[in-house]
Specification:
- A hairpin with a 4-residue loop joins strand 1 (about 10-15) and strand 2.
- This protein is α+β, with helices and mostly antiparallel strands and about 150 residues long.
- The longest helix is centred in the middle third of the chain and has 18 residues, at about 60-80.
- It has 3 helices and 6 strands.
- It has one domain (about 10-145): Alpha-Beta Plaits, CATH 3.30.70.
- Helix 1 (about 60-80) packs across helix 2.
- It has a 6-stranded antiparallel sheet with strand order 1-2-4-5-3-6, covered by helices on one side.
């Protein structure tokens, strides 16, 4: 199965509340056919913590622009050869999470470090989890009734 480029693939947006603050979930419905792809058994979660500017908890326009630039850098570093596949992005009060599926953790780390080498330190944390069945993305699809 061919996985489309993240920047040209279709993305869906789901909005909700968690529990009283707004949430935004952006995901790629086309990856449903790739669920459990053995080439991508690991999931990288990158969390950017930010200080909300108002009661909604959502990022300011400036924070959103900075996060968009960061996402673009990640896609440029990881997506051209599909070393990692950006599956979904979740924003809630005070944080944004990017979820990638990948296989070569070491190479992903090298490319992320290289992409971020010349910019100021960002408020991000990276976590790798073994998720060979793509369970996190399956949950996104269940929540959003994809394929139902």
């Amino acid at each position: 199965m061919k996985i489309e480029a993240a920047n040209t693939d279709a993305w869906n947006i789901a909005k909700g509340k968690n529990p009283e603050k707004p949430t935004v979930l952006r995901f790629r419905p086309s990856l449903k056919d790739a669920l459990g792809d053995a080439n991508y058994p690991q999931r990288l979660m990158i969390v950017w913590q930010y200080e909300p500017v108002d009661a909604s908890g959502m990022p300011s326009d400036t924070q959103s622009a900075d996060m968009k630039d960061f996402e673009d850098m990640l896609i440029e570093a990881l997506d051209p050869d599909r070393l990692a596949v950006l599956a979904f992005v979740f924003t809630t009060a005070g944080s944004r999470e990017w979820h990638f599926y990948l296989s070569d953790v070491s190479e992903v780390g090298i490319r992320i470090n290289k992409a971020l080498a010349n910019i100021p330190q960002l408020p991000i944390e990276l976590t790798i989890e073994h998720d060979p069945e793509w369970d996190e993305l399956r949950q996104v699809y269940q929540l959003c009734a994809v394929g139902s």
